[in-house]
Amino acid sequence: MKADQYVTVAREGVHESEINRSRFLCSLAPAATEAEAQEFIARVRKEHPTATHNCFAYVIGADASVQKASDDGEPGGTAGVPMLQMLTRRDIRYAVAVVTRYYGGVKLGAGGLIRAYGGVVGEALDALGTVTRRRYRLATVTVDHQRAGKTQNDLRSTGRTVVDLRYGAEVEIEVALPEADLPGFEAWLADSTAGSATLTLGGETYAP
């Protein structure tokens, strides 16, 4: 069953914390694919070649089907896993986090590391913000040119999201509809266009 919605990172950015003289920089970014996540990790590593560690975690897929984490030399399970757990606990999807650590001379111990790595990801999410994306079904409404303007206005005034407009022999208006709205929408469309519009259902998309 596909997720009806997911949360992702609002924008790319960096949040810094200092814990017992160690600097922790959490770089966060949205990532549509695993390849994008890996490119971002490589970029951050390049920016911080002298860092003690560049640990990462990412979650791809609305259903979190791809999850990866790396401790990058920290004791096993003390960095990447708590970072990943913070992302999944907050329902974050299609996102990548890299925590760069510059060691400050004070050992944190396993518990301290887990709290530090997980905590800085949580702080970064709060600082950079998140957006919720809901699942919509794309549908194309085809009407003649005469009715197109009124139909567009009617769609917008009832809170429907117009995604695209295509002008040809007729006008195609692409809308994004919540699945639950589909049966009612067909009836509404027939009523508002006096049965002159045709409705073609397309694929699915996630949008704010």
Question: How does the SSE layout of this entry go?
Answer:
Elements: E1 5-9, E2 13-19, E3 22-30, H1 34-47, E4 53-60, E5 66-70, H2 80-89, E6 95-102, H3 109-128, E7 130-143, H4 145-157, E8 161-167, E9 171-177, H5 182-192, E10 198-207
Antiparallel strand pairs: 1-7, 2-3, 3-6, 4-5, 4-6, 7-9, 7-10, 8-9
Domain UPF0029: 141-195
InterPro entries: EFG_III/V, Impact, Impact_N, Impact_N_sf, Impact_YigZ-like, Ribosomal_Su5_D2-typ_SF, UPF0029_Impact_C, UPF0029_Impact_CS
Domain Impact N-terminal: 21-125
Tally of separate helices: 5
Describe the global form.
elongated
Q: Could you estimate the helical fraction of the residues in percent? A: 25-40%
Query: Order of SSEs, N→C?
Result: EEEHEEHEHEHEEHE
Sequence stretches where pLDDT stays below 50 over 5 or more residues: none
Radius of gyration based on Cα positions: 23 Å
Count of β-strands: 10
Q: For the terminal residues, how far apart are their CA atoms?
A: 20 Å
Largest sheet: 5 strands, antiparallel
Task: Give the rounded overall mean pLDDT.
Answer: 93
User: What percent strand?
Assistant: 35-45%
User: What class, by secondary structure content?
Assistant: alpha+beta
Structure description:
The protein is of the alpha+beta class and 208 residues long. Helices cover 33% and strands 38% of the residues. The chain has helices at 34-47, 80-89, 109-128, 145-157, 182-192; strands spanning 5-9, 13-19, 22-30, 53-60, 66-70, 95-102, 130-143, 161-167, 171-177, 198-207. Strands 1, 7, 8, 9 and 10 form a five-stranded antiparallel beta sheet that branches. A five-stranded antiparallel beta sheet has the order 2-3-6-4-5, with helices on both faces. The longest helix is centred in the middle third of the chain and has 20 residues, at 109-128. The two termini are 20 Å apart.
